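User: C-alpha cells in, sequence out, please.
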C-alpha cells in the first residue's frame, strides 16, 4: 500500500509491517472535547464554574448563553461521523447534573450535552461491530457530580456494553494491532480516577499536553518544550486545541473558537507535518484537535505513519 488514507477502516488498511508496532508508537488522530457538538444551550452550568460567573449568567442569560455556546463548541460532527473520518481517540468529559434524580450521565464543556453518555457509547459499540479491526481509545475524565455509587454503576454499564471488546490494561500494557485482532479487542478505556485499580479492564489517565493558549505559535512553543522533556511512557496526547480565556473572549466578541481555530490552522498544519511517531524521546503518539470534520486533521496524522515504514526499511 503506497499511501495511507483516513478511510473508516484505516487501521486495518495499514501495511502489515506496522501490525506489530505498539499503538503507543503509532500516529493516531484524536478529538478534543469530542462531544461538544451536541451541547444544550439551555442546560445548567457545570458546578465547577465560579459563583461570579453563575450570577453573571443568571442576570445576562440572553447574552452569556450564545457566547458560551460558540466558545465551548469544539466539534461539529457526530461521534459516528468522527469515527468514520478516522478519529480513534476521544476526549470524553463525563458528569451528572446537579439535583438530577435520575442516574443519567452527560458530557460537558461548561454546560451539558443533549445526548447521554450511555446512548452515545452504545453508538460507538455498534460502529465497532461493523468495523471489527478498528480500535478506539475512549478517555473518560472530569466526572463532575459523580458519586462513588454512580462510578460503580457507570463502570458496570461500560463493561457490559463493550464486553470482550475491552483490552485489559493489566494483561496488555503495549497492545499492537495484531495482538488486539487476535483477541477480538477493540477498546482501550481510560478512566481518570482511582477506579482502574479495582477494575483491570480500565486503563489509567492518559497524559494530555494542553497548552492553554489562544495562538498556534504559543501552542507549538508549549508542545516543543514538552517534547524536549521526553515522551511519557505508554499512550499520551499532544493537544493542538486553542484555548481562549474570558479576557480574550470579551475583547473578541465577534470571534468564536471556530474562527480562531481556522485562522491558526495553517501554522498548526505545518508543525504536524514535521512530527514523527515511534519510540524516540521526541516522537508523538495521539494528536488531538478541534473541528476534526472540516479540517483535514485525520489524513495529516495518519500519513505520519509512513515515516515509521521508512525507518523500518532503512534498518
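Assistant: Sequence out:
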Amino acid at each position: 500500500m503506497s499511501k495511507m488514507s483516513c478511510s473508516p477502516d484505516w487501521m486495518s488498511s495499514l501495511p502489515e509491517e506496522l501490525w506489530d508496532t505498539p499503538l503507543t508508537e503509532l500516529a493516531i488522530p484524536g478529538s478534543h472535547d469530542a462531544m461538544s457538538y451536541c451541547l444544550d444551550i439551555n442546560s445548567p452550568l457545570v458546578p465547577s464554574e465560579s459563583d461570579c460567573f453563575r450570577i453573571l449568567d443568571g442576570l445576562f442569560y440572553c447574552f452569556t448563553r450564545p457566547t458560551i455556546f460558540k466558545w465551548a463548541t469544539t466539534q461539529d460532527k457526530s461521534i459516528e461521523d468522527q469515527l468514520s473520518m478516522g478519529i480513534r481517540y476521544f476526549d470524553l468529559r463525563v458528569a451528572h447534573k446537579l439535583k438530577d434524580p435520575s442516574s443519567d450521565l452527560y458530557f460537558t464543556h461548561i454546560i451539558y450535552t443533549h445526548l447521554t453518555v450511555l446512548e452515545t457509547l452504545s453508538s460507538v459499540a455498534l460502529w465497532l461491530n461493523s468495523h471489527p479491526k478498528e480500535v478506539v481509545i475512549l478517555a473518560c475524565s472530569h466526572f463532575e457530580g459523580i458519586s462513588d455509587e454512580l462510578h460503580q454503576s457507570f463502570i458496570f454499564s461500560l463493561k457490559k456494553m463493550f464486553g470482550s471488546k475491552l483490552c485489559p490494561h493489566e494483561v496488555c500494557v503495549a497492545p499492537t494491532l495484531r495482538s488486539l485482532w487476535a483477541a477480538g479487542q477493540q477498546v482501550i478505556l481510560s478512566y481518570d480516577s482511582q477506579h482502574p485499580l479495582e477494575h483491570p479492564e480500565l486503563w489509567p489517565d492518559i497524559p494530555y499536553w494542553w497548552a492553554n493558549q489562544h495562538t498556534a505559535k504559543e501552542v507549538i512553543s508549549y508542545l516543543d518544550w514538552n517534547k524536549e522533556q521526553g515522551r511519557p511512557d505508554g499512550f499520551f496526547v499532544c493537544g493542538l486545541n486553542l484555548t481562549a480565556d474570558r479576557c480574550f473572549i470579551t475583547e473578541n466578541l465577534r470571534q468564536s473558537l471556530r474562527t480562531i481555530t481556522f485562522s491558526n490552522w495553517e501554522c498548526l498544519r505545518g508543525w504536524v507535518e514535521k512530527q514523527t511517531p515511534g519510540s524516540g524521546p521526541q516522537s508523538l503518539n495521539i494528536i488531538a484537535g478541534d473541528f476534526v470534520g472540516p479540517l483535514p486533521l485525520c489524513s495529516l496524522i495518519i500519513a505520519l505513519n509512513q515515516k515509521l515504514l521508512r525507518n523500518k526499511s532503512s534498518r
